[in-house]
Amino acid sequence: MFLALVLGSVVGAEVYLNQFAVHISGGHSAASRVARDTGFINLGQIGSLDDHYLFEIPHRQRRSATHSHEHHTALTDHGEVGWFEQQVVKSRSKRDFHPRDVAEQMSVLDPYWKNQWYLHGGAQGGYDMKVMEAWREGYTGKNIVVAILDDGLEHNHPDLIKNYDPYASYDLNDHDNDPMPRYDASNENRHGTRCAGEVSAEANNTACTIGIAPDSRIGGIRMLDGEVYDAVEAASLSFNRSHVDIYSASWGPDDDGKVVDGPGKLAKEAFIKGIENGRGGKGSIFVWASGNGGSAHDSCNCDGYANSIFTLSISSTSENGIKPWYLEECSSTLASTYSSGAYNERQIATTDLRQRCTTTHTGTSASAPLAAGIVALVLEANRDLTWRDVQYITLMTSRSDPIEDGQWIVNGVGRKVSLRYGYGLMDATEMVKLAKVWRQVPEKHECLITSDVQNVPLASGNKFSSQVLTNGCVGTSTEVNYLEHVQARISLTHSQRGSVVIYLTSPSGTRSKVLPARSNDVAPGGFDNWPLLSVHFWGENPRGTWTLEIEEANMYNRRSSGGKLASWSLVLHGTRVKPVRLLNETSPATTTKTTAATTSSTSTTTTKKPSTPKVEACHKECAGGCTGTRPEDCNECKNFRVSSTRVCVSQCPDGFYTSGDMCMPCDASCATCSGPALTECQSCHEGRHYHQLKDKHSVCNIECVDGFFYSTNSCLPCDVGCKHCESSALHCTACRKGYSLKDDKCVSQAAVVSVMFEHITLSIVLISVIVLLVVFIFMGLLYMYRNQLFFWSDRKMYGPVPREDEEAVVRLTYSDDFDEDFKS
């Protein structure tokens, strides 16, 4: 069984946090003002999502069974709030389980290389994923950065330490820069370290295994070992997107066959911003495990991450090329890799927690990182590939022949595709070869067709069919002639949601099951404009009639009372012009030009020498000629070229750093920088504070982090021991662990104990002196009393004073007591 992160205290009950995601325009200062107005604390921007902030209710219990009505009202009534949502804990499952001889020998020092059967022809029929051939071509993932979104990364593991990238790493659970996993007796948080080793384990270092991309850089985002909510997912998916090339995720909603769940508003925004702005505008690559709910009859089309058009959804096949028991059949799956299968089939070898190795990594959790490693090889071969280029290359090169039970269909352009495996087993060598001659695909269009069917009853036991006719939005700005992803957006209710089965058939006759029966989903429910994705129509022309069929599966003889189809629509993603144009293909324009410029050496026709065309002067920043007068028309640049615009400039503008003769973009948080990472800022945009780190790196933060205070657009360090300080390094308002606050200063508790000991010692000495003085005084007084030395004793010792009429000289007399003493 797989390991589930059950984060709610009551199954099925929503758990509300004391944090709100809020959309506010106007920057950090505006957000902080709104936070004060509405009774919140502004915790700062959420990941790299502009104008999205995380607010927290102060002095309020973190979890609650109900939402905060008063704060909902306050945000609703505030004029500057565009949108808000109280954060809800989400249940997310890691997609693994807890539960020969090598055909080709190599001179490899890694002890578990022999267990990596999927790399050296160890699968049934001698198949593998043809990674070694890509290595021989020289592609090992050099300078490609992969981030594992999971439960942590043991970055001091001997097989990972060389390739560890701190700029691709963060701990969202403990809010620091160290993604090291939390250790416990059961090694619960081993998942991320295992996934990382599949991608980037160093080669020939005598430690464990070899990663698919052994020279790639690997980072870890620790985000699963705690409460997972929308803001956490969004921050993970958008972390340092100008630096990270590939995000690999082997988790998702519970694979129990009952749940329909996906990314929230913030996570959706993170996906969109990632494909728009990631990798310098070419788009972040999101690789996702399709799911392990096969035994629960689950479908990854009910998983909003695996069925997103932005993700590379990866399934698994076993070493014998057959369906693993955990596999989810799904029309959104693009391709597959090898992974575990039945109990007697081999599993995946990789790094493990506590600097160990394992040969028991399993499930689609193991498949997604293998795919991420292959994509790293592909990006090394061609850094200019967009996120859509990677999807095209993946499906065009995947193989059906290593798989025994694919239940393949052939779509309208002659490609084999399967509900189980997508377009087949990934082939690293063919992907690299195609990448080297690939041209970027044209602009993507979205053509929307809305059915006029509304609120139609779905009678129990009956089939329903609806058709829409489309011309692919021809003649409009959204015209689509070559399909990529197709989404059927469905809104319906049903007494047994899991009994609903839906098919979509294209004008070319390709019939795709976009929703299978889910026997565990027996409760009443439905779909609210839920996108059911199919990649089975890729390359087809969309023009003609599309057919949606809805039928009801008879699950264990349970009879339903039917339901209602509220509405449905079709979203056609694709291009207007032919998308695949390779560099070794000759275009008609090029052919015409070549022919016109060719003259026969045997021609006797006298022709007038053509006049030299007038060429206007190149721009002053050009070198080596030009094709026009603009700075972007230069063949070469005299100084620098801006990577995103291709414009030649004398020096790199703000927001870019110099890399050779190129101006490369800074992280979005930096105004100026020395490199691409968010820790290489040299100055900050308005609303951000410059923060110098101890390791000579610097960042631009929305707010000063613990241990720093704001002063003149910078974050300066507080005094030693201060967790928070205001206006001055010495004006502490809260202390770090081991320090105590005293007179606005944080004093080491050890020093406090020492001072207290000195004070106590001094007090004991003083008290002792005082006691001794008191004793001495008492003894003195006692002595004087006993010896009649007090002045008032004189009247008893001596005789009376003589009267005036007596003689001046009187006889000396003694008291009776004295006389008795004397006589004796």
TrEMBL record:
Q: Which GO terms describe its molecular function?
A: serine-type endopeptidase activity
Keyword Lyase listed: no
Q: Can you list the GO cellular component terms from the UniProt entry?
A: Golgi membrane; trans-Golgi network
User: From which domain of life does this come?
Assistant: Eukaryota
Q: Where are the transmembrane segments?
A: 762-785
Please report the stretch or stretches of sequence annotated as the P/Homo B domain.
440-578
Q: Which organism is it from?
A: Aplysia californica (California sea hare)
Required co-factor?
Ca(2+)
- Compartments, as annotated in UniProt: Membrane
Please give the PROSITE patterns that the UniProt record associates with this protein.
P_HOMO_B, SUBTILASE, SUBTILASE_ASP, SUBTILASE_HIS, SUBTILASE_SER
Q: Where is this region: Disordered?
A: 585-610
Mind telling me which PANTHER family this protein's record contains?
FURIN-LIKE PROTEASE 2, PROPROTEIN CONVERTASE SUBTILISIN/KEXIN-RELATED
The entry's family comment says: Belongs to the peptidase S8 family. Furin subfamily.
Q: What is this protein called?
A: Furin-like prohormone convertase
**Keywords on record:** Cleavage on pair of basic residues, Disulfide bond, Glycoprotein, Hydrolase, Membrane, Protease, Serine protease, Signal, Transmembrane, Transmembrane helix, Zymogen
* Gene Ontology annotations of biological process type: intracellular protein localization; neuron recognition; protein processing
Which InterPro entries does the record match to this protein?
A: Furin_repeat, Galactose-bd-like_sf, Growth_fac_rcpt_cys_sf, Kexin/furin, P_dom, Peptidase_S8/S53_dom, Peptidase_S8/S53_dom_sf, Peptidase_S8_Asp-AS
Query: Does the keyword field hold Zinc-finger?
Result: no
Residue ranges annotated as compositionally biased, kind Low complexity, are 586-610
Q: Which Pfam families match?
A: P_proprotein (PF01483), Peptidase_S8 (PF00082), S8_pro-domain (PF16470)
